[in-house]
Amino acid sequence: MTALLEIRGLAKRYDIRLGAFGERHAVVRALDDFTADIIEGETLSLVGESGCGKSTTGFAILNLQRPSAGSVRYKGQDIAGLDEEAMRPLRRDLQIVFQDPYSTLNPRMTIGEALAEPIRFHSLAPKADIPARVARLLEDVGMTPRFANRYPHELSGGQRQRVAIARALACQPRFIVCDEAISALDVSVQAQILNLLLDLQQKYELTYLFIAHDLAVVRHISDRVGVMYLGRLAELAPSQALFAEPLHPYTRALLSAVPEPNPRAPRNRQRLVGEVPSPLNPPQGCRFHPRCPMARDICKTSVPDWREVAAGHHVACHAVFGPGRTSWEGQA
Amino acid sequence: MTLLDIKGLTIDIARDTGPARVVDGIDLSVMEGESLGIVGESGCGKSLTMLSVVGLLPNRIHATGGEVRFRGRDLLTLSAKELRRIRGSEIGFIFQDPMTSLNPVIRVGDQIAEALIYQKSMTKAAARVRTVELLALVGIPAPEERANAWPHELSGGMRQRVMIAMGLAGNPKLLIADEPTTALDVTIQAQIVDLVRELKDRLKMSVVWITHDLALIAGLADRIAVLYAGTVVEDAPVDAIFDRPTHPYTRALLGSLPTLAGAAMERLPFIPGTPPEPGRRPMGCPFAPRCDLARASCTEAVPKLQAVGGDARHKVACPVALEGRA
Questions:
Q1: Partner of B124 at 20 to 30 A CA spacing, among A207, B101, B240, B314?
Q2: What pTM, to 2 d.p., does this model score?
Q3: Residue range A286-301, pLDDT digits in tens
């Protein structure tokens, strides 16, 4: 179990101007104090609702958006905040696949040209070999080489996502951030793309950071899962443990909101009241406390520590003592 | 009593190369007080079918055959003016994305009041009072203040509540909800689902909920119609769909659904291939090219809905599956 990426205290803040004339200044705390290792060969998933910072985390790790604080160690070097020049050789190793391949593929480029571009850019093959490389990439993602002559608009959503994956594979990466990579696809196609990602992971020993909001999908494909709320990690655990015994009150509420494909499933389970507050002005103390059924006074003032409460099971909550136990026990 | 009765509905897209069929002979009905779930993947015709009910089909897309009877009247034969009277008063509609359906430069309260003044000939003052009542009904806190809010000042969940309030403005008999929670987070989705379920009972409406999400609809619908490539392939009470799914497509859809219960799977089962594009529908059963039960006879004629066993409420358009169950 070696860490491919060691992330410590990663943060991303955006300065914005408010008011009709931009006269007011404010800071959006999109990501705060993200600390985790990404283990070689694993699928680490990040889940949470819109605005929780999961995509920001992916961007900050890849240095696609310069982090405001913290470090990301890759191959013994801190890549957080490296300039584009210094990043370029590392970009080959660290790739990303987005949600909407239609907006990331150039509509005027054939699929073949789109796949050849990264090979040429990183000088990965002599010119004469490029068509063969492109054909092999297409086969890797379950498409026939004749697709090289097609344009993005001629493909279905699932096929376009296969092309986006092929383009990420073109540089023979070690790490791929899948940012909501299957969210826009129909159920029957989603499963095809997920299985493809799993096959490629085995074949090329890839490490994935899988950013998603569909908890049912995440459960089936992840080794470990991190739950985020309003820019902070709330819980991080092996997938099996997280779904069998969620500890953070937010994780529990999130899981209970997921509809079950069973008409006789109990309704009106634990419902979260209210909505996620704005990251412009996040609550003091634990950011979840205004909606938390377990909140006490301490939660309003002090940010809970990030603690390991069972093997590999981290949680940031004053109330959680360990599996099956709360810190409130024995207290008035 | 049957409130809405759709028979043999066909919808075509007018293209330069000729019409492309997207809805191919759909039969659907909604009883009074019933909630019907319409489930299918993108392009299966689920939204177009219900848009044709309210006469809101996009340009160049037309209902070309069949009938859509609402309380006995065929809506397809009504004039635009007559349809307008029914739309918004007897039939309410909630769209998927509240941000594109709300006018960004009109306060939300005024948008709801506009419908009341226009549809119900209310005075401004009476419409204002009713608007605040409606906002309170859909669970918007401080409804009097929120009536003065601009759409951009509300969160996605709150905007969808405003859309629901608008859909309810005319006291409709039928509320059609077209993927109203797809753009929302799962905890907010759960709130909206609870709200619509509660309103349906309280206001004694019928609800048609259009969705691609089988898990979501399990807790919402009395009956489910599964659509594939512009046809209804299975129509049954909700328990029967989940306990005894019979059409190969329904079975495959349920099989490829990852869940939070049960054992974690290494690989997810999936349906090979993709649904046909409009205008490129295969001969016979549209699912045959992706179906593991398909045989030569499947490509000859489009299968008709038939009752499963002795249960007249459970209908399936697949003679092969029916044979297997006999």
A1: B101
A2: 0.88
A3: 999 999 999 999 999 9
